[in-house]
Write a structure and sequence with these properties.
The chain is an alpha/beta fold. Helix content is about 30%, strand content about 20%. Strands 6-5-4-7-8-9-10-11-12 form a nine-stranded mixed sheet, covered by helices on one side. The N and C termini lie far apart (about 210 Å).
């Protein structure tokens, strides 16, 4: 057997020798990558709240320093509105305790509530006007009818009670349960509009507890007042029936009619006035 011979392999020119073992070369990272950057995000989050707090504190301090110069006493009260039933003097007396305050401390809501408790005031609006003025705009009640014997009704069907009712006896008188004020007012407006072209006005309208309606017309160009018994329902339909029959039959006899009962389904009943007995003149007696 021929002897084994060892051959020494010569390195190839131009090639680097391959390192032996398991180690390998790793490129070094730059310093800017290996050192973590500082995180300033939390400062940005805190910046705006701190700024807002600082601004708010500065505004508060400035307002406190300027308040003595800006918060002046109320020296002028301007009352606006077409006032017929109440006087400027009565309004001024009513709000006198509130006007004693300063411009920023005056209780506008309390003043408005106090004014609206006056019987003739339906609505009050109160506002400040720089630097020392309060402007009050008033809307008075519009009386349309009397409610029972002790109150008046406005055009919204709301009752109010002035001190004196003697000057309003010319208004129609409405009666009904306390809860039915608006219902009676609405019915009055509808029926009054239907009767007006005939020369009738409503002197009295009553809604009784059981729901029946009774209407009395006022004396006028159409004749003396008459009473209309309308019943519980279908008031407009019954009034149209009365108007139609009145124009055809009853118009010439209206001065002799005391009441008309419209509670029937298809007709009406007439109640006549009692004839007035003629006055007999007594013969004069001669005295000696």
């Amino acid at each position: 057997m021929p002897g084994a011979s060892l051959r020494h392999q010569q390195p190839v020119p131009g090639r680097k020798p391959v390192p032996r073992g398991a180690s390998r070369m790793v490129a070094k990272e730059p310093m800017s990558v290996r050192v973590p950057k500082a995180n300033f995000g939390f400062l940005k989050v805190l910046f705006w709240p701190v700024l807002l707090v600082a601004l708010g504190f500065g505004t508060y301090e400035g307002a406190q320093r300027l308040m003595p110069y800006a918060d002046r006493p109320i020296t002028n009260v301007n009352v606006q509105g077409d006032l017929t039933y109440i006087s400027q003097q009565a309004v001024q007396q009513r709000i006198a305790p509130y006007v004693a305050a300063s411009f920023f401390t005056v209780d506008l809501e309390g003043m408005r509530t106090e004014l609206e408790q006056m019987p003739w005031i339906a609505h009050a609006e109160v506002r400040r006007v720089w630097p020392d003025q309060v402007v009050i705009r008033l809307e008075e009640q519009l009386p349309v009818a009397r409610w029972g014997d002790e109150a008046l009704l406005n055009n919204q069907g709301q009752a109010f009670t002035p001190r004196e009712l003697a000057n309003y006896e010319h208004l129609p008188q409405l009666f009904g349960p306390q809860r039915a004020q608006q219902q009676v007012m609405q019915q009055y407006q509808v029926l009054s509009q239907m009767l007006r072209p005939m020369g009738f006005s409503i002197a009295r309208l009553e809604l009784r507890e059981r729901g029946s309606w009774f209407l009395t017309t006022g004396a006028g160009s159409a004749g003396p007042g008459i009473e209309l018994l309308l019943g519980r329902d279908h008031l407009v339909e019954k009034m149209r029936r009365f108007i139609a029959i009145y124009e055809k039959t009853l118009k010439e006899q209206i001065t002799n009619i005391a009441r008309i009962d419209l509670r029937y389904a298809n007709g009406l009943a007439v109640g006549w006035r009692e004839p007035v007995a003629p006055t007999i003149a007594q013969p004069a007696v001669a005295k000696n």
